[in-house]
Specification:
By secondary structure, this protein is α+β, with helices and mostly antiparallel strands. The protein has 37 helices and 39 strands. Strands 16-39-38-37-17-31-36-35-32 form a nine-stranded mixed beta sheet, sandwiched between helices. It has a nine-stranded antiparallel beta sheet with strand order 19-18-30-29-28-27-26-25-24, sandwiched between helices. It has a six-stranded antiparallel beta sheet with strand order 3-2-4-13-5-11. Pfam families: Cation_ATPase, PhoLip_ATPase_C, PhoLip_ATPase_N.
């Protein structure tokens, strides 16, 4: 009996546990001065601030954030050292130009973004609000205030369709029952209406009577879905418990309610939405991480070059020690002063040190600072074009791709593992009631209702027919049972079954108008699609939920209006895995209705319950799961008067506690949810999303491994695995369901052995697995097993077993276990991981992966808010990875390699010149041209190529998923490419440096030589880039020709300045045929090796991309429609020209 579990001796201990926490907040209704008294730790105003900077802090804080990039500190140190006279290489001001330009552009971008946030904050803080000043002479009316002026304790009135300005406890609404309907789309993206309640004790009071009430609540915290408080209406009155249903959060909209009145408890930056206002986690792309390896190599090369120059300088100085008094760079005496003083020469030791340091300054462009700006600009435009791609737009909702992390676009092209949730991610999360088992009898709902038919009995309210908005198929045999055999045992079980579905939930009925004034539609709104499906099913069988308040619900039961008192509700939690409601029926009997997972429900049955019915129900549950249906078990028990009173006493104490309320209520629920009778079970169908099987097949063909991590039971998950083509009939399944560490270890060893035996041969090619004789293997493991594996020494065994299998399916896993599986792979491999999910339970998994994808589904936007990218459906993952991921990886990888090349050519060019300039580190190229080379002459083309270039078209990449392989094999950025590019830059610098000497012998002055060099290098690197462009459009053509023209104009303009040492040198050069012949010879000879290598690679050893490009060309010429895949519309301008 319940009395043995909820006995009175338990009450004192519960009372002691339910005491107020030490830091409980006291809110005095309509007395903001007292609520905000010194020591109350209350926010001063309701103003919010999402900006990062202020006028005073912008410069120091922005500089601090930018200098977290180590490369910036490197360039700043060089610029500062360049101010020392003995170390000056560039002009003292010129030394700061590159870094200053980068810092300034970034600061302007950050300032603009922060200004937009400031404008948004100002508009939000100045929105109008209505306050009831009960303690003033204007108590009879509301007073207008700005949102930022609201204080804790003030009574706030919000009209219909208004937005809640702060976190406030509801005290009264326009509905006499105290119910209010809110939409939380601004909070979590959910459009379903949710119900909030004012306590009946406060809803019936006039506003003036609320003055003096005291609310004790928990301090501000991050828990959006939790709230614990009590309210005392004055004097020594009882404490009335307040919970999550009694608080409305800032940003929610009031719907279908004329007005609400509440008291502000959390304001401004302490509101729950602001405490949770954190962006997506900061991540760094893999290419940018690998780039550090090459930067270290370049640094080592630079140190070697600088050391060589330093040693050579000492040797030269020693060999010319007798001439140093007259040499312009090293004379030891300054004769302009009397008496003469020592000038530049500092002795061999210091001269070697200074030569080394000056060499570092001269060759600092070996590490290209402009690369960071180029990458950021390209990523920004890539993200914009991805969001405009109509092929990733969800037609039903209009949702497009969202890029929430702009620095990891290229990671989308290197994903090896995809970890996916099931419900709402692979499935639609739109539940349809499919079948039911009641008292051991299976009923399959296949018969559709006729048009206009509501239920066995029409629901008539005030002369109008109310019918559910969603029609549910029914079983005629079950309808006849409810109609003609109500008094039989089977009939009573069926009635209680549907009463449980209609009462044990948090669904709110919303009445909608139709074109027929005599007909209304009932739209059931709620947090859970499962509950909606169950309530619609109950309505189809004649149990129509009409009204819900905080204290009672009204149900039309087979044509008779009945009122049920809601005495208590125990919400679902992951520990109990069930939900229950204590209901007082019209006949004054008290019933406990429970629904939950079969794994827990069968453990709390009455020992005397008919075992035959239990076995029959279990068999039907297994059949439902095999069909891929989501299952729930429905149970109930009758509570005697004493049992109810004991439960009520404990429930009241627990519900008024401010500390540990959830744990206390959970204990009460566990104790009352016992000795149940099974009423039946439900099977709900969650259909696959459009295109899921095809998407998974394409991902696997691309060489991507797809793992599914779900909280559903094993049979359901396996069935969905078959339907989405994750699991096939020819796969061998390894199922691990172990409940001890020893058995887990043995199971993993057996699984590894089995994989080795089943896999006869496997050859890794093209990023996937092609085998001459392979038996595919699927590993299926459940959450209880993972408890004994994760974060133990068994993880290595699980990793070996899982990576040996083609498919991994994890069932009944908790959110943290999902993150644990992702971490398991990340810690043991360098392969890129991606997690995709749609619910709050997927957030930890999304944040753990290298790339997190959120799906904006029916479970809210928690996953979207924590993700790097957001899409409307799972199928959009295919174009995101196989098309945009492929493009972005190829573009950014090439951009990094190209930037290393274009800077190295100039550095090596100056290096060769030092051997002919007494190692003085002077350069024939002017400082202005040197700066403009990186900032203007060659910068824009590489950015435009990084934005618009496409090696293959959208349709081709979708048609041949194997073309995703280059990203998996690091083909566009690797050590081999880096070495080849550096060798090419050495060759091109040698040609550029010495060919003019062959043409002009010794007749060239330094300024003329510098002009030839800068023109040659600009043309070289731009032609080099043009040779690698796959697809041209008018933007690229204008950029290449425009930048070349600008470069020539700038060079002429620099030499046209009388203050320049090379005054008019370029004009004299260009007037001769020898100059143009020399320039042509440099370009041909420098680019010849690259041309030969490209020709050899294209015609002798072509890769997959080159082969498919040739197929594209042939198909265009022959108009072969069989090869041409239908191209979806893309906003990428290059696609139309590729």
């Amino acid at each position: 009996m319940l009395s043995s579990k909820l006995s009175h001796p338990l009450l004192p201990s519960m009372a002691s546990a339910a005491g107020d926490p030490q830091h409980a907040r006291l809110v005095f209704v309509s007395d903001p001065d007292r609520s905000s008294s010194p020591g109350a730790d209350v926010a001063a105003s309701n103003a919010i601030r999402t900006t990062k900077y202020s006028l005073l802090t912008f410069i120091p804080r922005n500089l601090f954030e930018q200098f977290r990039r180590v490369a910036y500190i490197y360039f700043l140190a060089l610029a500062l050292l360049n101010q020392i006279p003995q170390l000056t290489v560039f002009g003292r001001r010129t030394a700061f130009l590159p870094l200053g330009t980068v810092l300034l552009l970034t600061a302007i971008k950050d300032a603009y973004e922060d200004y937009q946030r400031h404008r948004s904050d100002t508009a939000e803080n100045n929105r109008p609000a209505s306050v009831l000043p009960l303690r003033s002479q204007q108590a009879a009316s509301t007073v207008g205030k700005k949102w930022k002026e609201i204080r804790v304790g003030e009574l706030v009135r919000v009209e219909a369709n208004g937005t809640i300005p702060c976190d406030m406890v509801l005290l009264a609404t326009s509905d006499p029952t105290g119910v209010a309907y809110v939409q939380t789309i601004n909070l979590d993206g959910e459009s379903n209406l949710k119900s909030c309640y004012a306590k009946l004790e406060t809803a019936a009071l006039a506003p003036e009577a609320l003055a003096g009430a005291i609310i004790r609540c928990e301090p501000p915290n991050l828990d959006i879905y939790g709230f614990q408080a009590t309210i005392e209406l004055g004097g020594d009155g009882p404490r009335i418990p307040l919970g999550p249903a009694n608080i409305v959060l800032r940003g929610c909209d009031i719907k279908n309610t004329s007005w609400v009145v509440g008291v502000a408890v959390y304001i401004g930056m302490e509101t729950k939405v602001m405490l949770n206002n954190s962006g997506a986690p900061s991540k760094r792309s893999r290419l940018e991480t690998l780039m550090n390896r090459e930067i270290v190599v370049l640094a080592v090369i630079m140190v070697g070059i600088c050391s060589l120059i330093a040693v050579s300088t000492v040797i030269w100085l020693h060999s010319n020690r007798d001439k140093l008094d007259t040499l312009p760079f090293y004379r030891r005496k300054d004769y302009s002063k009397v008496p003469p003083r020592d000038f530049l020469y500092n002795g061999l030791g210091l001269e070697m040190l200074f030569a080394f340091l000056k060499s570092i300054f001269r060759f600092q462009n070996f590490i290209p600072i402009s690369l960071y700006i180029s990458m950021e600009l390209s990523r920004l435009m890539q993200s914009f074009m991805m969001t405009q791609d109509e092929s990733m737009c969800h037609e039903a909702t209009g949702d497009k791709l969202q890029c929430r992390a702009l620095n990891i676009n290229e990671d989308l092209g290197q994903i090896k593992y995809v970890f996916s949730d099931k419900t709402g991610t692979l499935t639609e999360n739109k539940m349809v009631f499919h079948c039911a088992s009641i008292h051991g009898i299976d009923y399959v709902c296949r018969e559709p209702l006729t048009p206009g038919e509501v239920a066995p009995h029409p629901t008539v309210v005030d002369g109008q027919v109310w019918r559910p908005k969603v029609m549910v198929n029914t079983d005629r045999k079950l309808l006849r049972l409810l109609e003609t055999e109500r008094d039989t045992e089977a009939g009573l079980y069926a009635i209680n079954f549907f009463l449980a579905l209609a009462t044990c939930n948090t669904i709110v009925p919303q009445v909608l108008d139709t074109s027929d004034p005599g007909v209304k539609l009932i739209d059931y709104q709620g947090d859970s699609p499962d509950e909606q499906a169950l309530v619609y099913a109950a309505a189809a069988y004649g149990f129509v939920l009409i009204q819900r308040t905080s204290a009672h619900i009204t149900i039309d039961v087979l044509g008779q209006r009945q009122r049920f008192e809601v005495l208590g509700l125990h919400a679902f939690d992951s520990d109990r895995k069930r939900m229950s409601a204590v209901i007082c029926c019209p006949d004054k009997s008290v019933k406990l209705f429970v629904k939950g997972a079969d794994s827990v429900m069968f453990n709390i049955l009455d020992g005397s319950f008919d075992l035959e019915i239990v076995r029959a129900t279990e068999m039907q549950l297994h059949a439902y799961s095999s069909l891929g249906l989501r299952t729930l078990v429905i149970g109930m028990r009758d509570l005697s008067g004493r049992e109810f009173e004991n439960w009520k006493a404990c429930y009241n104490i627990a519900s008024t506690s401010l500390s540990g309320r959830a744990d206390l209520l959970g204990d009460i629920a566990i104790q009352v949810e016992s000795d149940l009778r099974i009423l039946g079970a439900t099977g709900i169908e969650d259909k696959l999303q459009q295109g899921v099987p095809e998407a998974i097949e394409s991902l696997r063909e691309a060489g991507i491994r797809v793992w599914v991590l779900t909280g559903d039971k094993q049979e359901t998950a396996i069935s969905i695995g078959y339907s989405c083509k994750l699991i096939s009939d020819n796969m061998s399944q390894i199922i691990i369901n172990s409940h001890s560490k020893e058995s887990c270890k043995q199971s993993l060893e057996d699984a590894i052995t089995m994989c080795e035996n089943l896999t006869i041969s496997r050859t890794q090619t093209d990023g996937g697995s092609n085998a001459s004789a392979i038996v595919p293997v699927a590993l299926i493991i459940d959450g209880p097993t993972l408890v004994h594996i994760l974060e133990t020494e068994l993880e290595d065994g699980l990793y070996r077993a899982a990576t040996s299998c083609d498919v991994v399916l994890c069932c009944r896993v908790a959110p943290l276990q999902k993150a644990g599986i992702v971490a398991l792979v990340k810690k043991r491999t360098n392969d890129m991981t991606l997690s995709i999910g749609d619910g709050a339970n997927d957030v930890s998994m999304i944040q753990m992966a290298d790339v997190g994808i959120g799906i904006s589904g029916q479970e809210g936007r928690q996953a979207v808010m924590a993700s790097d990218f957001a899409i409307g459906q799972f199928r959009f993952l295919v174009p995101l990875l196989l098309v945009h991921g492929h493009w972005n990886y190829q573009r950014i990888g090439y951009m990094i390699i190209y930037n290393f090349y274009r800077n190295s050519v100039v550095v090596f060019l100056i290096f060769w010149y030092t051997f002919f300039s007494a190692f003085s580190l002077t350069s024939p190229i002017t400082d202005a041209s040197g700066f403009l080379y990186s900032a203007v002459y060659t910068a824009l083309p590489t950015v435009m190529v990084g934005i618009y270039d496409q090696d293959l078209t959208h349709g081709t990449l979708l048609k041949f998923p194997q073309l995703y392989g280059p990203g998996l094999r690091d083909e566009h950025y690797n050590v081999k490419l880096f070495v080849l590019v550096m060798l090419d830059s050495v060759w091109q610098s040698l040609v550029t440096a010495f060919v003019p000497c062959l043409f002009y012998s010794a007749t060239l002055d330094d300024s003329s030589l510098g002009d030839i060099w800068i023109i040659s290098v600009v043309l070289l690197v731009n032609i080099h880039l043009a040779m690698d462009v796959f697809s041209w459009n008018w933007l690229l053509l204008v950029t290449f020709w425009g930048v070349t023209a600008i470069a020539m104009g700038c060079i002429v303009a620099i030499d046209a300045s009388p203050s320049m040492p090379g005054y008019w040198a370029i004009n004299n050069l260009m007037a001769t045929k020898l100059f143009w012949l020399c320039l042509l010879f440099i370009l041909v000879l420098a680019l010849l090796p690259r041309f030969v290598v490209k020709a050899f690679a294209s015609y002798v050893q072509p890769d997959d991309v080159q082969i498919v490009r040739e197929i594209e060309k042939v198909s265009k010429r022959k108009h072969d429609s069989a090869l041409e895949a239908p191209l979806r519309s893309s906003s990428d301008p290059q696609q139309q020209n590729s």
